[in-house]
Design a protein that fits this description.
The chain has 9 helices and 12 strands. By secondary structure, it is of the alpha+beta class. The mean pLDDT is about 95. The protein is globular, with a radius of gyration of 18 Å.
Length: about 280
């Protein structure tokens, strides 16, 4: 088994494999949309942030090392109980990847795979803060949003960027970032959305990512302009995002938000999302 860093030319294949691992009934793990959103930094940066584990010529796990020192994992569905793979991954988190983590610390997002979670626990990794995964079934119609929802193109990019900046403090998103991600392989079946109120103001935004027909789609990210909160716009843009994924043939829409963000959890639940319980990441000792 080998761990490699892909090159830019490898990205479409890696993204397609991660897409093929998305199935209903499995815990939320890294989605091609997560890779696509990181693509706002450019294809070279995305390739450099990825690690791919290959056994007998097949990719069995993919990790994304993001800018915060978080290792976000996706494991092949038939390898969730593979103890050999789990031990190798856990060793690499401390060894080759450990050298890249800030000040010898780090967090692993390993939400799927009993064996991997157990291997981390056995090595003294502690549980981190709780997250709440939520899903909305898309087999039926989605109520229409109160906002006017527009799909972002080159003419609406500035509205998308302004909402992102006003919704998330310290946002690194930019018009150039949108151009970078929109040119990425994962964005072929993705859309950026902006919600406009009755006065024509851009008040909310989201990006939706499909993993293919009949598979769960991802909402990442979603936010409401700080000057327009408390008016139901969060529920409205969430419904618009869910409908966009339903039109693309996704089986469900999924998100994961920090459990401490009570308002976000309530917003998704008000838009018909349900959760099966909290999950935690693993913090390096």
């Amino acid at each position: 088994m080998t761990m490699t860093t892909p090159c830019v030319a490898d990205l479409p294949g890696v993204i397609d494999i991660v897409a093929s691992w998305q199935h209903e009934g499995l815990p939320v793990q890294v989605h091609p949309g997560d890779l696509g959103w990181y693509g706002r930094f450019g294809s070279e940066a995305l390739a450099a942030a990825l690690r791919v584990w290959v056994r007998d010529g097949d990719i069995v796990a993919v990790g994304l090392l993001d800018e915060t020192g978080l290792i976000r994992m996706a494991v092949a569905p038939d390898s969730g109980d593979d103890d050999v793979l789990a031990r190798r991954l856990a060793d690499d988190f401390v060894g080759p990847l450990g050298d890249l983590l800030p000040a010898g610390r780090g967090v692993v997002e390993a939400r799927y795979g009993r064996a991997l979670r157990q291997a981390l626990t056995d090595r003294g990794w502690a549980t981190g803060d709780p997250w709440t995964p939520l899903r909305r079934d898309l087999s039926g119609p989605v109520p229409g949003p109160a906002l006017r929802i527009e799909v972002v193109d080159s003419e609406l990019v500035e509205d998308r960027v302004r909402v992102q900046a006003a919704a998330f403090a310290g946002s690194s998103f930019s018009a150039e970032g949108w151009r970078q991600l929109s040119q990425g392989h994962a964005y072929r079946t993705a859309q950026c959305l902006v919600g406009y109120d009755q006065a024509g103001a851009a008040v909310a935004a989201a990006t939706v990512w499909s993993a293919g027909h009949g598979r769960p789609g991802l909402v990442e990210p979603l936010g409401v302009h700080g000057d327009h909160r408390g008016q139901g716009h969060g529920v409205s843009i969430t419904l618009g995002a869910a409908e966009a994924l339903r039109r693309q043939g996704c089986s469900s829409a999924m998100v994961a938000t920090s459990s401490s963000n009570v308002a976000a959890v309530a917003t998704y639940q008000a838009a018909g999302f349900v959760t099966s319980g909290e999950i935690t990441d693993h913090c390096r000792p």
